[in-house]
Amino acid sequence: MLALANQNPVLMGLEVALSNVIDGMKFNADLFIRAHGNTKVSNSTVIDNPKVNTTSGVVTGATTAEGHAFYSVPYGEAPIGELRFKAPVPRNGKGPIDGSGPDYVNCFEFPLNCTSDDKCDKYYSEDCLRLNVFVPPTIDFSSPPGEKNPVMVWLHGGGFYAGSGTLEFYDAVKISNQTNTIIVSVNYRLGPLGFLVFDENGTRLFEGNQGIKDQQLAMQWVQDNIEKFGGNKSMVTLFGQSAGAQSIMYHLMSPVSEPLFHRAIMESNPASFPYPTKEEAINTVTKGLLRALNCTGSELQCLTDAPAYMLLELHVQTLMFNENPDLFFIIEPYRPVLDGVEINEQPLKFFQSGKWQNYKEVVIGVMKDEEASVNVLLKNTILVLSMFESFLNWIVGPENGEKVVEKYSELAGNPGPGYDYTDLLAQAAADLLFVCPTRALTRDHHPLSGDACVLNPDRCGYAYHTLDIFHLFNVESVTSDVFATNDTAVAISQFSKFWSNFAYHGAPSKEPFEWPPYVSKSLNDQSINEWTNIRLEAPTTSPESDFRQELCDFWDTLGFYVNFTSADVTTEPTEDNTETTTGAASVLIANVFVLLLPFLPMLALASQDPVLMGLEVALSKVIGGVKFNTDHFIRAHGNTKISNSTVIDNPKVNTTSGVVTGATTAEGHAFYSVPYGEAPIGELRFKAPVPRNDKGPIDGSGPDYVHCFEFPLNCTSDDKCNKYYSEDCLRLNVFVPPTIDFSSPPGGKNPVMVWLHGGGFYAGSGTLEFYDAAKLSHQTNTIIVSVNYRLGPLGFLVFDENGTRLFEGNQGIKDQQLAMQWVQDNIEKFGGNKSMVTLFGQSAGAQSIMYHLMSPVSEPLFHRAIMESNPASFPYPTQEEAINTVTKGLLRALNCTGSELQCLMDAPAYMLLELHVQTLMFNENPDLFFIIEPYRPVLDGVEINEQPLDFFQSGKWQNNKEVIIGVMKDEEAFVNALLKNTILVLSMFESFLNWIVGPANGEKVIEKYSELAGNPGPGYDYTDLLAQAAADLLFVCPTRALTRFMSETSTLSKPSVYLYVDHHPLSGDACVLNPDLCGYAYHTLDIYYVFNVESVTSDVFATNDTAVASQFSKFWGNFAYYGAPSKELTEWPPYVSSMNGPSIEEWTSIRLEAPTTSTEYNFRQDLCDFWDSLDFYMNFTSIEETAKVTATSPGPTKPVVKPLTTEKATVIATDKFPMLTTAKTTNASTTTVRPTTITTGRLLATTTSKTSKVITATTTTMESSLETTTGACNTLVANYSVYIVYTIICTYLLHLLGQ
Length: 1299
Fold this sequence. Notes:
By secondary structure, this protein is of the alpha/beta class.
């Protein structure tokens, strides 16, 4: 349904962006505007400036060889001050009007399509009641032209909250010339400015339908003025698309509109959408907006004082404060209301009864693939039956849903388990929202093709919602190239001809056989009636009969889109129940954001692979129209492995895995994709790794990379996926500096650095091209080893069968240990010193290193450690907790029958990873840590039996080792980027924090961080505070605690724990592809400098970038050699406590930035002292009794879980929305699920009162598979679906589903 949100064709590129976050190909809105934005004078020389005296004033236009254009002509007074939210007032002549362009004024919309304040101020204004007039060259303004040409008035789409009639895209010079008609394109107010209904003290102050009244005023302006432009005011045709077509449907019912037009063309009209009554509008959208504004005092004053941009930017929050959102409210919260004066009956009933202006000619039509967005968004996700059912049950209710599932399943021959229902969902959505309510005369079959597919590859071959606009306005291809031949045929030969014929004659064709009217006729004198429409496609149109007749007959019998409430059935206002409404909003937060959170404030954890990191940036840019292009990035950096130098030798090294051949260049030696473990397949799947036996020579000269399966898969075709991914992925790369000479055995002398990549333990790869360490090896004169390890369920699954523990978990950690053992066994042959091994890693890689610093198995395998951006607060689940959360979730997502073990063993590897989202959803009480890292190290009772921070605090870690640890200054800058066009008001800030840390702590956190902003008043944007709070909670303060524990318990003779804070922000050329992160030192940015990849733009580093990269090389190299990052302690002193005066304790870290580092003291001391006092990230469950495994026991004794005394929480549920399930195994079908009660870490508990404005929650136990299905995830389904359709925040859900 996403297409409804973006009728503005430039914004339409945002949909494409969402579908292309993997492929790295995105419609670039800014590029598009540059390509087409100045077509208003048809790129021809202005040859005259005609003047026309209108009721608004004397308007000066621009004449070219193609025709005349009059831009941004005001038809109404500025609706500001007392006129805000009111019916429009005609514009009085106030002097000359320059309509020669290019000054465009657009009404405020959501999202704002501008990237800076200057652009926003230029493009948007409340004084936006403007229209454009396009006149063909046949009109001569040398004398008064008189009335002669038909007039066509364009009403744009955009869900009544987006789009603009004066958008550059809708330049109608060509279509005016080709049709010889006058074209008028109209702006009207959007969102709350255009459709708000409001009462105060029982008095109706704002009636709603302001945007519709704007259209009516523009139509009156046409009646009053169009003759002076050569137009015939008695031959006015309204034409519009989507919400514009809905508007026309209104005008065909309205007595006010009736005399103002004479014919109508409705393109892609979602005719099923009901009009709310005014009371319904108040109880849903108005109350939601007022709560989002967080008004105090007079609500009227609050509304009239709020900046226009804020009213539109609060779109998402307004949706969230609704207790029972339905499909129509979510898609179009702002839309026409039943005012009881003009309209008092639902549209379809009104037309059915014949009360419409039934003497007018009408063209109406749909696109063949209206909902192709579904195909695009779910292109890499298998939509199985249970998920198909859940979507439909939410949309049409379970009773109708069952019938719809049955009907559409018949189309696919009632397929078995594992079938992908994506196409059926797309068709069902199109039939419900467009095709069947319309039962139209026309249908456009012409798909996207040719050059247009370059920027829209996933839409190729679809005739999708909004595509007709490109053909209608004859914009020569979305690629700024010329139309393909068939595009031209549709645009010129068909649209231009049919629409102009209709404007002139009231019929789209002179010959009825070319386009017959839509009437019923008897077929062969039998009882079968046939309804005829035309099939619009290239090279020619053709008649067709009864398009989707059977399906639309089926939908008609359901009566779903006819029996809506009318104005005579009024809705009583409900009480303003703060607790109920807050609870509803909290449900959205606690369930939508539960799954979105790792891909929202904490999204950085999910994509530590720097190429995949670009995908995060892409999601933050779906408004701005700029995206990190992964394919481009890989092309730019993917072959740096031999530093773009000529290979001058191929050294051979005899290892325990076999003889490895590498590649030598001037920068050094590289050995790629060296296997260190046997392929973990067959009986070895989910098991501890086995060392690789010598199986003959190994070609490590590249460029053959093998990656472990991850989520999401970073490939765009089967060929790429088969090339990049394999379960036989236990590989490593070895980079050797050029000082090592392989002409004789090099011996062991150089320090070794082993890189462990991040990615939330389910994404990333150590052998990724990006992590080419040739430069780092050369600059530090060290041996660099980068390691692959298994991810997701393949790397961290715990599983029991019949009481026997078959899979212990921590397989990925054991992979790392085996790689470290391989280094001990082989690195001397590469010139490395096996007694000087430093582990370094980022994010989940740093978490891994924290594990190794506790593990007795890992202890002899390394000697020093560097942890970059370590989310040290994350607790380890016990094995039982892992089973009760992620394992059971995965099994339910697989929908196994029979042996669960066999199901797991038979499932394709890619499926186990692709079911990541579904696995998350099958959890009753997901906490923050489970959502961000469902797969992570577990407390196995053997190696580790205590939570990490407790372990380090007690001094049990390997406290004889030197450690560097650090964070980025702006770890959670993704919050700023993602919410850049959304105002995060206090209530939202509260809801986030209450869900994360519980209401008791939440209240304290809100108070603490509000103090940073001086305790601001209503309307303050809390985005920056949320970003800082998230960074402090997940990274900065737990890292400080960990560093202090290590410093205080170290047994080395001299202080050897070092802390840094990286302040160096994204800047210079790198900002071109990442403008929203410009100026931030964000999570993952340090990787670029550590590995010295010369700028994310593929240009050379800026001067400051080079300086920071040099610092990393120097400090990391020094540490590998000497155990200290600098020889001079004044340059980087160890992290120890010292006294500054009698009572001030100082802890010293360094401030990493360009051009030089500097010492700083007590970074965020006050805030971290505060977090420490909450004790939030310390008291997690540990194992009290270590599990003991004996050779004779049938399996390990299960560890005992310490009971929790913290609050418990559960998803709030209703019976309305059943749970999602997903699978594509060959043996999958519905299965009974055992009742479960989940105990996990720290349940992020929530309770509420009217004053606290937080979640009301109770503890429940699932009692049956049906109750589990209905209870655990229903709200997720409802609100996931909600946000799939229409919120910027849920682009992150689309990131999950789309990838």
